[in-house]
Amino acid sequence: MRWDRIIKAVHREVEPILGKGKVASYIPALANVDPKYFALVLTTLDGKSYATGQADIPFSSQSISKVFMLTLALEAWGGRLWKRVGREPSGSSFNSIAQLEYEQGVPRNPFINAGALAVTDAVISKAGERGALDDMLTLVRRASQSDRVRINPDVAQSERQWGHRNTSLAHFMKSFGVIENDVDQVLNTYFCQCALETTATELSRAGIYLANAGKLPHTDEKITRAERATRINALMMTCGHYDMSGDFAFRVGLPGKSGVGGGILCIIPGVGSLCAWSPPLNAAGNSLAGTRALELFARRADINVF
Ligand code: DON
């Protein structure tokens, strides 16, 4: 099969760089992962998954969860969400606070940490603290067809313990009136959502609605409207890799969202959803070998949105 061949060829090609880069070390739960782990999984619209490497080892999805929370926020608020968060690339690191002061506490986009906190706050305003997290888990479990997907309590606890920067961002935004709910509730939900734990196979399945005009292909269930799926993809392309989003678009040419656990969710509209996983990160906090694998995949498959 064509996809199998491409995925295996990409794996062989990235082998020499596995282990290069720096595994996230701000919490022990992320630091203790084998830096040589690698997985690449493509799930196509017909429901088939093509995998190589450690595709069934759970890892921390981290910022990839921001895609699912954004989906829920758009469902809850529609276009009104854009009053609380912008849609422009920030050109700054994922946890930067600097721009917030100049821009009256309104974060540049939903994928930097400040923006994700605003999005989580918006979901809490509709669904409540427990409801926001439950709704995200339900969405990911349903789309990935896996009840094993969970919030890892140890990772959530470490996020809380080392969350000084996120805590500052949330309080700073609250001072501008951009955060509506109790700051501790917003932070607790955000720390738990970052602790979302999936395998590469599960994550590649979970993203499939973004490749299929907002619907799950196996049940035809509508997760979001087609136009919203398109817009989430646009934001993944322009903002999904922080201050390296331009580089990712240039090299891969597909919408993608990274997490500091080393995962990248990448969407091929009309074709399928890809997950690359390799824990060591580049300078911007995106998977080094994962980015390279997606670049090689896009080139070999001759696929990009441009
Ligand atoms: O909020 C944080 O700082 C981390 N829990 C997650 C950040 C993240 O995944 C950034 N992405 N590359």
UniProtKB/TrEMBL annotation:
Q: Which GO terms describe its molecular function?
A: glutaminase activity
Q: Which HAMAP family match?
A: Glutaminase
Which stretches are annotated as coiled coil? Answer: none
Q: Which family does it belong to?
A: Belongs to the glutaminase family.
Assembly: Homotetramer.
| Presence of keyword Manganese | no
Gene Ontology BP terms: glutamate biosynthetic process; L-glutamine catabolic process
Give the SUPFAM superfamilies listed for this entry: beta-lactamase/transpeptidase-like
Q: Which reaction(s) does its UniProt entry say it catalyses?
A: L-glutamine + H2O = L-glutamate + NH4(+)
Which residues does substrate bind? 63, 113, 159, 166, 190, 242, 260
Spell out the protein name for this chain. Glutaminase
Recite the UniProt keywords alphabetically: Acetylation, Hydrolase
By its UniProt entry, which Pfam families does this protein fall under? Glutaminase
Whichever gene encodes this chain, its name is glsA
Q: What InterPro entries does the record tag this protein with?
A: Beta-lactam/transpept-like, Glutaminase
PANTHER family xrefs: GLUTAMINASE
Which Enzyme Commission numbers does its entry carry? Answer: 3.5.1.2
